[in-house]
Amino acid sequence: MSDFLLWSGCGRLQAPHHMKKTLLSTFAIAVASCINTPIFAQDHIKISGLLYLDYSYVLASPLADDEGENGFGYRRLYVTTDYKISDDFSGRARFEANDGSTTAQGRPAPFVKDLYLKWSNSFANGHDLYIGISSPPSFTVAEKAWGYRSLEKTIQDRVKIVSSRDFGVALRGRLTSDGTVRYGVMVGNNSGVSGESDKHKRIYAQAEFYPSEALTITIGGDYSSFGDDLDNGINGNGHIAYSAGNLTVGAEGFYNQVSPTGPGSSVDTYGVSLFARANLNENVTVIGRFDRVEFAEAGVEESENFFLAGLALRPHKNVEFIPNVLASKFESDDSSEVTGRVTLHMKF
User: pLDDT digits over 298-325, tens only?
Assistant: First the structure.
């Protein structure tokens, strides 16, 4: 290293032309030797990505002017770096861009989606601590069982009951040695991927049960405090999924209540999601889902029926083309919103 510093200090001197090539080579070798070697260790860093592209066409709408609207768009782009510092410490840094995250000029505006340090076996064997922006325990198991985030979010995420990310501290682990009973708890800002804007927090907890390889059950809830006109929010949720051979069926439900600070009615929302998928062969999967959501605020009730159907075609294990149709009908509307899409889901 001292030779490199001496050479660098002399680098301002003019070198003869025939020495320039040798000096440049020496400089490159010296710089490489000064860089921390884990950067080049591919077993320590993994870079991956995910992409959802759509062509969509509005087949029907309660708003006549919206019928026939169509176009290409991207709903999600992930670029993810997973890193391993040691057997105990690892983490993730992930950026997302989508067709809603744009600047005032309409250009893509990537944002931080995940940014956390994972401390494995932090308190005891099988108990992992997460610090930073990560997924709350509320829906991660259900999303994995649903399996087609490329087509739609899980119900709590879709109707904005629980955000897919929060900034805080989470602890996850197993309560039994065989891992058939697990848990997840988290304290977060309740601001999604954005920075904290007040002193209030959200507390999450979930129990997970794996009585067999085919069956998954979760029971959870969260409590959030607010400022201004809202006092607190209480949410309860549950999920069950069963896989047998090429068929997976499942259900997810929730009940959410947000109470005002003073007199007035609470905002109550509850819903259930039923889903199924069947692998016709290793390259073709049929997908179906139905959601029912009820809203009640200040004595006014509203409901939504949501339907999704698709056919996933896989020319490669990391590439899916999915013709699909979405239909949403609110009780207050005279007709449904129906959209046909062709979705490209790609992992790289």
Answer: 778 999 999 999 999 999 999 999 999 9
Q: Which two tokens stand for residue 301?
A: 């009730």
Q: What is the pLDDT of residue 33?
A: 43
pLDDT, average across residues 204-230? 93
- Measured CA to CA, the distance from residue 332 to residue 294 in angstroms comes to 12
- At residue 283, φ and ψ (nearest 5 deg) are -115, -5
d(CA 319, CA 329): 31
Largest interatomic CA distance in the chain: 87
Task: Quote the CA–CA distance of 343 and 320 in Å, as a whole number.
Answer: 8
Check whether 228 has a pLDDT greater than 90: no
HEC secondary structure over 48-79:
EEEEEEEEEEEEECCCHHHCCCEEEEEEEEEE
Q: Identify which has the larger pLDDT, 31 or 49.
A: 49
Q: Which residues contact 258 (CB under 8 A, 6 or more apart)?
A: 226, 230, 232, 233, 266, 267
DSSP per position, 223-266: EEE--TTEEEEEEEEEEEEEEETTEEEEEEEEEEEEEESSSS--
How does DSSP classify residue 196?
A: P
Spatial CA neighbour of 90 closest among 64, 110, 114, 70: 114
Residue 208 CA to residue 216 CA, distance in Å, equals 7
Evaluate whether 85 touches 93 at the Cβ level (below 8 Å). Answer: no
* Average pLDDT of every residue of the chain: 88
d(CA 131, CA 91): 9
Strand partners, 340: 57, 325
Phi and psi at 140, nearest 5°, equal: -65, -40
For residues 38 and 66, the answer to whether their CB atoms sit within 8 Å is: no
